[in-house]
Design goal:
The chain has helices at residues 6-10, 21-25, 39-52, 56-64, 70-76, 85-92, 95-107, 109-119, 123-134, 145-155, 160-177, 199-205, 221-234, 268-273, 307-315, 319-336, and strands at 143-144, 185-186, 244-249, 266-267, 276-278, 287-294, 300-305. With 340 residues, it is an alpha+beta fold. It has a domain at 6-78 and 141-232: Bacterial muramidase (Helicase, Ruva Protein, domain 3, Orthogonal Bundle), CATH 1.10.8. Helix 3 (39-52) packs antiparallel against helix 4 (56-64), helix 7 crosses helix 9 (123-134) and helix 10 (145-155) packs antiparallel against helix 11 (160-177).
Length: 340
């Protein structure tokens, strides 16, 4: 989660602001040396001490070990959400990932059922999130979170404000959870654990589901499952409601309602007025968002996305991501069948 917010937004950053990793590195004295002696880091440390009563000398020691990572700057400039749908889909809708999802569900069936009952979020959606994010814990990242967040906070101007906030939240969660901030490993964007929560999401939504006095999203499947369920519930998941339905079009007059806003804003009557036919009947009071997904040979695929699809995009602000989660969830559900 998040990591989850920034990727889609990067696509709207003017090209003139998308500096090369080399150019970004020039903003600091060194790409590979420690950054403690830079003015921006000094200011950050002073603010953490004044605002949250951190010990300045301890933060000085921590930032002595922090390095700017050019490979992180390179990766943040070319996220996979920039791919066309037909290529993006192939990354996540694989038999191996589907099979792993079925096995994860089998291994954690009791916890998934309990979380679904408590938070109202279908088990297959929770499983699919973990599958898309980290392949069920196999790909949780290989960067120290403190390095990733510092690199993007102090050497990536287009998103420095966001990542400074995440760095602040990371230090706070480490203090709250009694974690050495030099230890956690995560993604190039600083996302952590099996669900890839950004620090602010961890502090707001992570759950201690097994009551062991720890919110462990790195190794504890119960906490991971419940934390995702809680995240979706807090973002107003509507239990039992549809997520998205395919749409067929008779004409091209629908193109005027396609835009980058993801919030459902069209009535069913409006869809009908555009000669758009949904694959299943929707309640007349439904609001939908018309989305187009690029196909390799057949032009585009149209979907009517409802409020629950929008909730998935609160985890990662990309319609490609949300559709991958939705379709993976269906594939896992269909292949799972009934457990013996």
């Amino acid at each position: 989660m998040h990591k989850y917010n920034l990727i889609y937004r990067l696509r709207s950053i003017p090209r003139v602001l998308r500096l090369s990793p080399f150019a970004l590195c020039l903003l600091l004295a060194s790409c590979t040396g420690n950054i403690k002696d830079t003015e921006s880091v000094h200011t950050f440390i002073e603010q953490m001490a004044a605002k949250h009563q951190f010990d300045e000398s301890e933060l000085d020691d921590l930032f002595e070990t922090v390095e700017i990572k050019p490979d992180i700057l390179k990766r943040i400039a070319s996220p996979s959400e920039g791919l066309p749908w037909y290529k993006y889909r192939k990354i996540f809708l694989t038999e191996a990932r589907i099979d792993a999802g079925v096995q994860f569900w089998r291994d954690n069936a009791v916890t998934l059922a309990a979380a679904e009952k408590q938070y109202g979020v279908p088990a297959e959606i929770i499983v699919a999130i973990i599958g898309v994010e980290t392949l069920f814990g196999k790909n949780t990242g290989n960067h120290r979170v403190i390095d990733a967040l510092s690199t993007l906070a102090f050497a990536y101007p287009p998103r420095s404000k966001f990542f400074l906030g995440e760095l602040e939240n990371f230090l706070l969660l480490c203090r709250d959870e009694r974690i050495n901030p030099a230890d956690p490993i995560g993604s190039y964007a600083g996302a952590m654990g099996m669900p890839q929560f950004m620090p602010s999401s961890f502090r707001a939504y992570a759950v201690d589901f097994d009551n062991d006095n720890r919110r462990d999203i790195w190794h504890n499947n119960s906490d991971v499952i419940a934390s995702i369920g809680n995240y979706f519930a807090k973002h107003h998941w509507q239990t039992g409601q549809a997520i998205a339905v395919p749409v067929t079009a008779k004409y091209k007059n629908y193109e005027a309602v396609l835009n980058n806003d993801l919030k459902p804003n069209l009535s069913v009557a409006k869809l009908e007025s555009l000669n758009l036919i949904t694959s299943r009947q929707l309640p007349l009071d439904s609001k939908v968002k018309l989305l187009s997904f690029e196909q390799q040979q057949q032009g585009e695929e149209l979907w009517a996305a409802l409020d629950n699809f929008y909730v998935i995009t609160r985890y990662n602000h990309s319609p490609l991501y949300a559709m991958a989660v939705y379709q993976l969830s269906l594939s896992i559900l269909n292949k799972k069948g009934s457990f013996p």
